[in-house]
Specification:
heterodimer; A: mainly alpha; Arp2/3 complex 21 kDa subunit ARPC3; B: Thrombin, subunit H; 4 helices
Chain lengths: 177, 292
Amino acid sequence: MSDFLRNIFRMAVFILVQVYILNKIPHLHRFITPYLYYLFILWLPFSISRVGLLLVSFITGLTLDYFMMTPGLHAAACVLTGYVRPFVINILTPKDSFEFNYREPSPKAMRWAPYAVYVLILSFLHHGYMVLLEWLDFGRFLEFVIKVVATTGISMLLIFTVELLFPRRLKFRTNTP
Amino acid sequence: MRNIFLFIRRYFNFFIFLALQVVALWLLFTYNHFHRARFLGIANELTGRINTQYNKVEDYFNLKDENRRLHKFNDSLLNLLPGNFIQQDTSMRLVKDSVPYDTAGHFRRYFFRDATVVYNTVNAQKNYIQLDRGTNQGIKDNMAVISSDGSAVGVVVNVSANFCQVMSLLHVQSTVSASLKRGGDFGTVEWDGKDPRFLLLKRLPKTVEVKNGDTVLTSPYSYNIPPGYMIGTVADIKVDNTTGMYILKVKTAANFYNLQQVHIIENIERSEQVKLFEETRKKIEETKKNPK
């Protein structure tokens, strides 16, 4: 399966899981909304161009927005995530080590600790920006902070569950076909 | 000029980022302002279609609750049917508190309770159905049971605190009084223990005109089962030459294979009817023994 097809398929699955499972599960708490769909952006290949990454992020966010009737909210957060992603990858990993060996970010490609930091930073940015937009007329700053932290926590939990349950079979990139 | 182009090229990604942010925020804030989103009409078509497909699946998970709600509601409606009440002669009336009646002088005769089937067989010779209602819910022996589509199922034969056993029509000892919808001639419905899809209607004289497909209803002469509930339709006609009676094969109206929700019907005046019958018999027999 080509990268393109694989990612189209992945995006559909992530959006459907987000809309029909995570948004449908009984309400846990008013501060906690489980988010997982943006893991699609974190999983995009290393080789994608930065403009491409931004556009794909925008489309992902907008698709979810139209399901949830909040046009622009998730799109804005996704675009921010997509924009910051290359910087985080650059900081966390020494130059030209893994990027040429593995196709996309994963615990195997980056090792667990850097991958966890990578996920944490981007989750935090995504949720922080989204909750900020949602709560622009929020009452108390403390509630905003609690919501960001709680949502990030539950998302981290979900993402690591997914990583453990569905280890991606990543081909080691070699010159021989 | 050249520097401007260089500048734009250098920060090209950042400008794209800004542009997309502006678009997203514009969508968000215009939505909040006008309470309707841009392009929502087109997007709605697509998401609506996917949601419909999803709903088809999701509905299956709610079927059980929905079914129970519907059944409860049917039960409340059945209790309102005018057939459950008998008009009393108003000039001479014995007022009894125990019999519920409304202000128009209608005495309630049949009372409906909803119940769920917890155990059911069709393969034995003597099939019993267990329901989740018992003496705590006011169930007594000899109450009739009909399925959720209003077709006869059986009669309560044993009751515990919270459950009751129903002798199904598919029981070799079950005899239920039945009548043909056309003409109203009556006979009894029994089961020969062979095919759970068919019952036998016996004791109907050969002189009665019967056709395939005629409807068989519960008869008005039963103490247990209220009249007019469907038992089945005639599927095969045979004549027993020794007795001159029909043996009709009746296709059951109730689907005994997947009974889920049923109604238990109480005949409030049953004890009075039975008592009168017993006393009459006793009286006649006594007069036979010692004639004056």
